[in-house]
Design goal:
Chain lengths: 114, 255, 143
């Protein structure tokens, strides 16, 4: 993939994540911070499909943006073919790993498997 | 290795005579036999108009002729005497001691360039990256084949790139760049600004090939718009501006 | 850093003192990005405790809902706001917005790209981050 395509994705995920994270935070604040963290409230959030979809989207967007940002920082710190390959594939693996782990929480909670 | 010398001892042959003086600290390093650089100190008199280069040449003339420094025009045109002066990359011939407002002037070789000796650094990488972005007009036709003898441009078209044509390849921008501090593969602000200089030239048709060259993992995207390159440019080139415009083409904001 | 290449290294990259507020913003952007990624990974792990049922969730919540936890979250809020606001500024700059127009430079060559618009953007990001952090502290400790 060309670097310009990767960076367009980087910017796009950032803008989309800002909008969705804002909604996520507003949801915490509108119902009172401590109350919003209670088990029943959180469970209800996960079971509400539009909210669960939004959480999944935030998870994907931030994982892509965050691990690409990490890749950029690591590529700038040190150079070398083997190192750069390890960084790129390592970040990609970490990204997929985190998405898989977070999705497991969202899907299982949504399906009532707690 | 630190040594304090007084030019007053040789007043008979000195060309700078003033009641004001500064301590000039020069970084000395010879990669052939030194493990690290050391500073030598000299007390140098100066006038309001004395430049750092003149002070260094004073040291060479009266104290230690082995100090290695590259210079030529003494008027900020050749781009040879770039160095770190009191922590910032500057041209020694374009920096007056009186402007520095300090009793101690420390000169070191430019960062992010391999050292040849003392204050002289290697420019091979800068010239390589400069050459890589094809710093010349690219066209299918040529002046020789064309019926017209010149490629005409309006003053507005000239304005688009003339600022970037001021680059003297002194390397100060590459020395100040935070990405170049750790990334030795980064193409650098000097080459990127020159890529924009040709892309913005209405006579040039090589935009796509140049954008392709800089659109790689150590290309234009490793610039984070810190702007240090523009702050140290002694010719007002403003590489940061050129780089953002160049990136605008890749993001589709410019055509 | 080898003397061979004479690269300034991380110390030079990180040193914000010589080149003004733009270089401070560059450094803060990087730090906040790394901090937010670390928080994001921790947050994904934290929320996965919901799968352990009410007891597991309450146990973990007790660990994080402390004074230290609230202070840490306040810093996360500040990092998030700074990274967002400064990120939008940088993105606009990357598109060529607000970086000035090419023109014949006149001595003393003030670079047009380092203009007040971007400086205001950076200071705004810092101020908004501080306000958001204080608001976050008020919400968390006010309850």
């Amino acid at each position: 993939m060309r670097e310009s395509t990767i960076m367009k994705i980087h910017y796009g995920t950032a803008l989309a994540a800002v909008a969705l994270v804002a909604v996520h935070i507003l949801m915490r604040l509108t119902m009172g911070f401590a109350e919003s963290l209670e088990y029943e409230t959180v469970l209800a959030n996960y079971k509400f499909i539009p909210y669960a979809v939004m959480l999944e989207l935030i998870l994907i967007l931030l994982s892509i943006h965050g691990f690409n940002g990490l890749r950029v920082i690591l590529l700038e710190l040190k150079q070398g073919q083997a190192y750069e390959k390890a960084v790129s594939y390592g970040c990609l693996a970490a990204m997929f790993g985190l998405i898989a782990y977070g999705s497991r929480t969202i899907i299982m909670t949504n399906m009532g498997m707690t | 290795m630190a040594q304090v010398s007084h030019i007053a001892d040789e007043q008979g042959s000195t060309s700078i005579s003033s009641s004001k003086s500064i301590t000039l600290r020069i970084a000395r390093y010879n990669p052939e036999h030194d493990d690290s650089s050391q500073f030598m100190e000299f007390t140098i008199p100066y006038e309001r108009w004395t430049t750092v280069l003149e002070a260094i040449l004073e040291v060479k003339k009266h104290f230690d002729h082995s100090v290695a420094v590259r210079y030529s025009c003494r008027q900020a045109t050749c781009g040879s005497c770039g160095m770190i002066i009191n922590g910032k990359p500057r041209l020694a011939c374009f920096t007056k001691i009186s402007e520095l407002n300090s009793n101690v002037v420390t000169v070191e070789p430019m960062n992010n360039f391999p050292i040849i000796r003392d204050l002289a650094v290697k420019f091979e990488r800068l010239f390589d990256t400069h050459h890589k972005i094809k710093p010349y007009l690219i066209r299918d036709d040529t002046e020789l084949e064309s019926n017209e003898k010149e490629f005409l441009q309006s003053p507005e078209e000239v304005e688009q790139y003339i600022q970037f044509a001021n680059c003297i390849k002194c390397g100060l921008c590459n020395s100040a760049c935070p990405t170049m501090a750790t990334d030795s593969s980064f193409v650098g602000p000097q080459a990127l600004a020159q890529a924009y200089r040709y892309v913005a030239d209405s006579r040039d048709k090589g935009k796509d090939s140049r954008l392709k060259i800089i659109d790689e993992s150590h290309g234009i995207w490793r610039c984070h718009f810190a702007g240090s390159c523009s702050q140290v440019c002694p010719k007002g080139v403003d590489p940061a501006m050129g780089i953002q415009f160049l990136r605008g083409y890749l993001l589709g904001f410019r055509s | 850093m080898t003397q061979d290449e004479h690269k300034e290294g991380i110390k030079g990259m990180a040193n914000p003192s010589r080149y003004g507020i733009e270089r401070v913003a560059y450094w803060l952007m990087r730090l906040s990005g790394l901090g937010l990624l670390a928080y994001f990974v921790a947050h994904i792990y934290e929320t996965s405790n919901i799968l352990r049922g009410q007891v597991g969730w309450d146990e973990f919540l007790e660990l994080t809902q402390t004074t230290e936890g609230h202070l840490f979250l306040a810093i996360v809020i500040a990092m998030c706001v700074f990274h967002t606001v400064n990120g939008i500024r940088v993105m606009l700059g990357h598109g060529g917005v607000g970086v000035g127009k090419p023109a014949r430079p006149d001595y003393p060559y003030d670079p047009a790209s380092q203009n007040y618009r971007h400086k205001i953007g950076i200071y705004s990001a810092i101020v908004l981050a501080a306000i958001a952090m204080m608001y976050g502290l008020a919400v968390m400790f006010g309850e």
